[in-house]
Design a protein that fits this description.
- This protein is mainly α and about 190 residues long.
- About 75% of the residues lie in helices and about 0% in strands.
- Helix 1 packs antiparallel against helix 8, helix 2 packs parallel to helix 7 and helix 3 runs parallel beside helix 6.
C-alpha cells in the first residue's frame, strides 16, 4: 500500500500539467506521452537503484533513507509557494515552437519537469531498504492517468484551487511515509 501512496505523490504534478495543457489547448501525441513517461520511469528506477546501492554500502541506510524522505516531504511543503514550479503554471513555456503540440524534445523536458522531485525521493526510498520494482511502473501509470485526467478536467472546470496545493499534498504523503519508516512501532 505504501508504494501506491508514494507513486501517487510522485505523479501528482501530472494533474496540474494536464490541467494547464488542457486550458491552453496544447495536445500531447502518443509518441510524446511515451517519451514523457519513459523519462519518469527511468528517473524513478535510477533513483531506486542508487538508493539500494547506498543501503548496501551504508549500515544506517534504512534510517538515512527515512530521514531523506521526511526532509524532502518538509522541503516540498515549504517550497510549495516557490516559483520553481513556474513551468507548471505556464505550460506554453514547454511548447517551445508554439505549435500547441508537445513535440519529442518538449516531451523530454516535460518528463524531467514531472520527475525532478522523484530522484531524491526514490533515492531515500531505496536507501530505506524498501526497493520496489513496482514503483516505476506505478509512477508511469499514474502519470498517464493524472495527465489525461487533468486534460479532461480542464475541459469541464477552471482551475480554482492553487496549483501549489498538489505539491503540498505530495510533500505530506512523502513526509508521512518517511515518518512511518522512522517509527519502529508502525513498521
Amino acid at each position: 500500500m505504501e508504494v501506491i501512496f508514494l507513486a501517487v505523490a510522485l505523479s501528482a504534478d501530472a494533474v496540474v500539467f494536464g490541467l494547464s495543457f488542457g486550458m491552453k489547448d496544447i495536445k500531447i501525441p502518443l509518441y510524446s506521452l511515451f517519451l514523457m513517461t519513459a523519462v519518469g520511469f527511468l528517473t524513478v528506477g535510477g533513483g531506486l537503484l542508487l538508493g539500494e546501492i547506498v543501503f548496501s554500502l551504508v549500515p544506517i541506510g534504512e534510517s538515512l533513507g527515512a530521514f531523506i524522505l521526511v526532509g524532502l516531504g518538509i522541503w516540498l511543503i515549504c517550497d510549495s509557494d516557490d516559483g520553481a514550479k513556474d513551468v507548471i503554471n505556464h505550460p506554453e513555456k514547454i511548447d517551445i515552437d508554439n505549435s500547441r503540440i508537445i513535440e519529442p524534445v518538449e516531451a523530454i523536458i516535460t518528463g524531467f519537469a514531472l520527475s525532478v522531485d522523484s530522484v531524491s525521493v526514490c533515492l531515500g526510498y531505496g536507501a530505506s531498504g524498501k526497493n520496489s520494482v513496482v514503483l516505476p511502473i506505478l509512477v508511469t501509470l499514474f502519470q498517464i492517468i493524472f495527465l489525461y485526467g487533468g486534460i479532461i478536467m480542464s475541459k469541464k472546470i477552471r482551475l480554482k484551487t492553487r496549483v501549489n496545493c498538489i505539491t503540498l499534498i505530495s510533500g505530506l504523503i512523502i513526509m508521512i511515509i518517511g515518518l512511518y519508516k522512522l517509527v519502529p512501532f508502525f513498521s
